[in-house]
Design goal:
α3 runs parallel beside α7 (about 190-200), α5 crosses α8 (about 210-225) and α6 packs antiparallel against α13 (about 295-315). About 30% of the residues are buried. By secondary structure, the protein is mostly helical. About 55% of the residues lie in helices and about 0% in strands. The chain has a two-stranded antiparallel sheet with strand order 1-2. It is globular. The protein has one domain. The protein has helices at about 30-50, 60-80, 90-125, 135, 140-160, 165-175, 190-200, 210-225, 235-240, 245-250, 255-260, 270-275, 295-315, and strands spanning about 15, 280. The chain binds zinc ion (ZN) (2 copies). The site of one zinc ion has 5 residues, from loops.
Length: about 325
Amino acid sequence: MRVGNRVIGAQAPVTVGWENIPRVEGGPVRQFIFTWFQPVMLFALLAFWYYAPNSIAKASTAIGIGIGFKVLLLGLEWVNPRYASWRLTWKELATDLFYVGIGLTVVRLAGNYIGSDAMAEALQDAFHWDKLSWFTGLPILLQAFLIAFIFDFGQYWMHRGMHNWYPLWLPHSVHHYITQLNINKGAVGNPVELFLIGLGIGGFFDFLPRALLLAGSFGLAIGVYQHINVRFNSPRWWRFLFNTTEHHSLHHSQDFESTRSNYAGSFIFIDRMFGTCVDGEAELLGMEGGRRMSIREQMTHPFTEGWKTLKERFGGPAAVPAE
Ligand SMILES: [Zn+2]
Ligand SMILES: [Zn+2]
């Protein structure tokens, strides 16, 4: 299996355990802000969507909040970066914006088309909505948590599958070539992967909008910290329940064993349930010792790599490279 024998830089260092992770430096105000920012934002978002009148509880508001939140986080990256080596460069920013742009246009259009219309119809045929009244009768916050949990549970197994099955690894591998984390890095990857992950999200959009907006708040206010360059003193309970930059930096580490951990998007307790959680962090990220990929290679890599493997496997002895 190709996944198993990727060339990785010799024993890239990783930090395991919370005890060895640096704390936020500075005075009490700074300590307070970078300890409580994450929980306060989560509860603020949940409260907003819980109490917002119907006239503003809609997708356009959600998109506006999402963008505003990310701009705020971009500011925090500037004020309190985790690693100087992860600082944005113009080159990184240009790549990130390219993918954020794709995410907002092409992938979303395709996802809406397939996800929303076809899926919604299929779902409507498959279920009669009144059968779900047991669900819609639950408290709205519980519905929201269950939607977020079920979604993340699916993401967990999809992501774990990507790391264990070569045809899924090919499109996902591109995301693992990133060499730093920042607020836009969640968008960087081969579009095939982004499309696969985006698929189906839209299918639920007509269904339980309020619970869905609340579920989205869980995703936004927790999952967003996977890719960010900010040092937080996240409270211990937060780190126990939720995926953090620390966890996800290990997942992106140059150390192969560390990448086989922390698959969840939001709820790291899913990894704890299945024994794939490793607490800790890493600074040196990427594949092949941190080789940076151009946008062109990010676009073509799954196909050229897959073609190469096919040729090696079926192309006869002449095509096997002498290694
Ligand atoms: Zn991964
Ligand atoms: Zn990632």
